[in-house]
Specification:
The structure holds two protein chains of two kinds.
Chain A: E1 6-15, H1 21-30, E2 51-52, H2 69-85, H3 89-92, E3 96-101, H4 107-120, H5 135-144, E4 150-153, H6 159-172, E5 178-185, H7 189-197, E6 218-219, E7 221-229, H8 230-235, E8 242-251, H9 264-277, E9 284-288, H10 295-309, E10 316-317, H11 320-323, H12 330-344, E11 346-347, E12 369-370, E13 375-382, E14 386-394, E15 409-417, E16 421-427, E17 434-440, H13 452-455, H14 460-472, E18 481-486, H15 492-504, H16 522-531, E19 537-538, E20 540-541, H17 546-559, E21 565-572, H18 576-585, E22 597-605, E23 613-622, H19 629-639, E24 645-650, H20 659-673, E25 678-681, H21 683-686, H22 693-707, E26 710-716, E27 721-728
Parallel strand pairs in A: 2-6, 3-4, 3-5, 9-10, 9-13, 18-19, 18-21, 24-25, 24-26
Antiparallel strand pairs in A: 1-7, 1-8, 4-20, 5-7, 8-14, 11-12, 13-14, 15-22, 15-23, 16-17, 21-22, 23-27, 26-27
Chain B: H1 5-15, H2 41-55, H3 62-65, H4 72-85
Classes of the chains: A alpha/beta, B mainly alpha.
Chain lengths: 729, 86
């Protein structure tokens, strides 16, 4: 396992300063920022404020016509990175994964659905097809032929950093040989007006760390790194550009939007990355700061830097004024900046800085200049107090990072909020009135235990998440704990309410309370605050396998000893938009009903406690089209120990297109095992929603306990993902 | 004409979705943030929107509003001062 070190063999980037790595670096070397007034969409109130918009025609650059703006940006960056790495997926596609940070997702395009509905009273449901944050991941995996683990990480502004960290975990644990890793986010009306409503935008363009800074600047773009296991890169004689030697994540558990005033979470994430790399602070030669230019971020980050480095803070800069802050892709774009800085031995400048702020007391690298260094650090912090830190090192360094073989986890407890009634739900304004039968959760008796001052601002989704987590149980004091909470739809209703109001009132009277709640990681962030959980805090999204993606991340945190306990779960709620659009998305039909649930498992490493049951493995991948059941059954047999397996719990739903596939795989598996398998389903009990396999997990745990034998949970996603896990008593 | 603090309190309650709280329960002089009502920075932003919607006062930098948001009394004085200078 010694050569499972992640190395970087290819880079691709597209952002306002340029559409290639060379163009982007030329702008950085020349100190040229790309901020200009907005042209992408009409913004009556904020249109003149400078922004990092990509003004190229993306299709003319080669992007597919199909897909959202974020999909296209990601596709272009991935294409360039794959070319740069000279990868041939006919050779390694089965062992290639895709992990992208994505927070805006297809909003720029799906917003047109609401704009035409509210302004012209016309329905355009097709505009919402690529809304989900997992859409760019599926587009890349399907187009380029990658069949390894694929998921999106949606933790707001730290997404890109956490996605690259997760990709490194996939490589180190042996789950993939190559990962297309990075981030993508386009400009969108919701996020644009959202940050303006939080008064976080500097009308003169961002001035990170400057005494007179007045907030961030907005941007968009995508960046992709080809991460590869060193042994794999060596075998194919690939050029190694740099190494990823350290990565760490943490959560402030402090506030939905404001950073911890002392930068405690930022410090913890930097320390965790250094620990992983087995480096000391003195080894770091350059830091690409998160440096958004908001008053609070820059002060907190400065305090964290001084706490870690004392009086010897290495050269650092924020490159945000070159690009604008592109949210989920900023961590990935800045990773490319860091790798290029290493390769060229140049320290990128910090445009916008003129005067030292006494509250920070640090001066960044003002203009791009030469330097000599071996290790660089890249910081990404986001809403929900979510922090991710990466350390890149020169290709010729000898890494010390230890391999982390995956290990089983004990399920200490399960917190389940599941539907208990079938109701007629009305689809409401602005959607056309319609009655939809649905599986729904009743108001929970324990909701009264939530603090009323908090509750007034907690969305129903966040309330469900907190209650499920409390039922799963608070991690023991003194234990380091992590959270991974998957979701398919995320906080769709919060974002929709914010956007409806925005469009109806032409950006007057925005709703600042609603905006922070609209990010996918809002529920996980609220759990962290409620239970005081300060380790990694992730919100993966991957369609129907969103729960399994979260389970993988949580179990990985345990097996590499980044956490002593982890909460793994998934959540989706019934709201107007899935109710109305679900049928049109192909998520359900007349025979099946939508549903909702929040299910969270509290996990510990095998050594700690007496469990409810154990999860021995969770494996992620993608299936080939046309679907070959024999191949899929063989994949399961190769991934897991099938000894003592007597039942399989599948995501079959009582209608095509996936049902016949499940039945054929179960038949093939029965042949391999040599005795009949009990086939259980669960969607008829909880309804249809992307995160439903979390409920399936609770069914599988009950079944394993009842039968006192091993049970498989097997899930396919409509967009090509697959997952299997083994649960035993 | 000085604004009515009762009306202002009602606007605050509506803007911040302070269920179960009546204008009479809010003391004119008590701090709105931190202790007191337990409001935070996001509530301050809702107050910014409320000021624009009901009183036509535009705040572009939260620092500008910070001293005004100390209590209902300081907020009422701020509104009066802004309106008379307009």
């Amino acid at each position: 396992m010694a050569d499972r070190f992640p190395v970087i063999t290819g880079l691709g980037v597209i952002a306002a300063p340029g559409v290639t790595v060379a163009e982007v670096w030329a702008a950085i070397a020349a100190g040229q920022t790309a901020l200009q007034p907005l042209t992408l969409f009409h913004s009556p109130r904020y249109g003149q404020i400078p922004v990092g918009e990509i003004r190229h025609d993306l299709v003319a650059l080669g992007a597919p016509v199909r897909g959202s703006r974020s999909d296209k940006l990601a596709w272009l960056a991935a294409r360039d990175a794959i070319r740069d790495a000279q990868l041939d997926f006919s050779q390694c596609g089965n062992r290639t994964g895709v992990v992208l940070g994505c927070s805006v997702g297809g909003s720029y395009d799906s917003e047109k659905f609401l704009v035409t509905l509210l302004k012209k009273n016309r329905m355009r449901p097709r505009a919402t097809r690529f809304h989900e944050c997992s859409s760019p991941v599926d587009a890349i995996a399907n187009d380029f032929g990658c069949y390894g683990p694929s998921l999106a990480i949606s933790t707001a502004c730290s997404s890109g950093g956490l996605a690259i960290a997760t990709a490194a975990d996939l490589i180190q644990s042996g789950a993939a040989d190559v990962v297309i890793a990075g981030g993508t986010d386009s400009l969108a009306r919701t996020t644009w007006a959202g940050f303006h409503s939080l008064l976080l935008v500097d009308s003169q363009g961002c001035r990170p760390f400057d005494a007179n800074r007045g907030g961030m600047s907005f941007g968009e773009g995508a960046a992709v790194l080809i991460l590869e296991a060193e042994e794999h890169a060596r075998k194919r004689n690939a050029r190694i550009i740099a190494r990823l030697t350290g990565w760490g994540a943490s959560c402030d558990a402090h506030h939905a939007t404001a950073p911890h005033p002392e930068g405690a979470g930022a410090l913890a994430a930097m320390q965790s990355a250094l620990r992983r790399a087995q480096l000391s602070p003195a080894d770091i030669g350059y830091i690409n700061a998160h440096g958004t230019g908001t008053r609070d971020n820059d002060v907190a980050e400065g305090k964290a830097l001084k706490a870690l480095f004392g009086d010897n803070v290495p050269p650092f800069s924020s490159t945000k004024r070159f690009f604008g802050h592109s949210l989920a892709s900023s961590g990935a774009i800045e990773a490319v900046v860091c790798i290029e800085a290493l390769r060229r031995q140049q320290l990128p400048g910090n445009p916008g800085f003129h005067e030292i702020d006494p509250a920070i007391g640090l001066t960044p690298v003002t203009e791009t200049r030469l330097g000599t260094f071996t290790h660089v650090m890249s910081n990404s912090f986001g809403f929900g107090g979510n922090n991710a830190v990466l350390i890149f090192s020169s290709a010729d360094t000898q890494p010390k990072t230890l391999p982390t073989p995956s290990a089983p986890a004990h399920i200490v407890n399960l917190g389940v909020i599941a539907p208990d009634q079938i109701v007629d739900r009305q689809v409401e304004w602005p959607l056309p009135p319609e009655t939809v039968r649905a599986h729904a959760c009743s108001p929970q008796a324990d909701a009264a235990t939530l603090n009323p001052i908090q509750r007034r601002r907690l969305s129903r989704l966040c309330q469900m998440a907190i209650l499920a987590a409390r039922r799963a149980g608070k991690p023991e004091s003194g234990h380091r704990a992590a959270i991974a909470l998957g979701t398919g739809f995320g906080s769709l209703d919060e974002g929709a309410v914010f956007l409806e109001n925005l469009i109806a009132k032409d950006e007057a009277e925005p709703m600042p309370t609603r905006f922070p709640g609209s990010v996918h990681n809002a529920p996980a962030g609220q759990i962290a605050i409620d239970l005081g959980v300060r380790g990694m805090n992730s919100a993966p999204t991957a369609g129907e396998i969103s729960f399994e993606a979260a389970l993988w991340q949580a179990m990985n945190q345990l097996s590499c000893h980044e956490a002593d306990e982890a909460l793994a779960g998934a959540i989706d709620e019934l709201n107007r938009y899935p109710l109305y659009l679900g049928k049109r998305w192909g998520a359900w039909d007349d025979k099946t009903m939508p549903g909702e649930a929040a299910v969270i498992a509290r996990l510990q490493r095998e050594s700690i406690s007496a469990p409810l049951a154990r999860v021995t493995n969770v494996k992620l991948g993608r299936f080939r089209r046309p679907f070959d059941a024999k191949l899929e059954a063989e994949w399961i047999a190769a991934q897991l120990n099938l000894k003592d397996v007597t039942a399989i719990v599948s995501g079959a739903r009582g209608w095509p297109p996936l049902d016949p596939l499940y039945a054929r795989v179960v038949a093939e598996l029965t042949r391999i095992i040599g005795h009949p398998l009990e086939h259980q389903t669960y969607r008829e009990r909880c309804g249809e929603f992307p995160a439903a396999s979390a409920f399936g997990f609770s069914v599988a745990v009950d079944l394993a306990r009842a039968k006192q034998s091993a049970v498989l949970l097997y899930t396919l996603s409509l967009r090509g993902g697959k997952a299997v896990c083994r649960i035993e008593p | 004409m000085a604004i009515s603090t009762t009306e202002l309190k009602q606007n605050i309650i509506t803007a911040l979705n302070l269920q179960d709280i009546t204008p009479e329960q809010i003391d004119d002089e008590a701090p709105l943030f931190g202790a007191g009502l337990g409001l935070d920075s996001i509530d301050a932003l809702e107050l910014v929107v409320m000021l624009e919607k009901h009183y036509g006062i535009v705040i572009k930098d939260i620092e500008e509003g910070r001293p005004a948001f100390r209590s209902v009394r300081t907020l009422a004085d701020f509104i009066d001062a802004r309106r008379s200078s307009a």
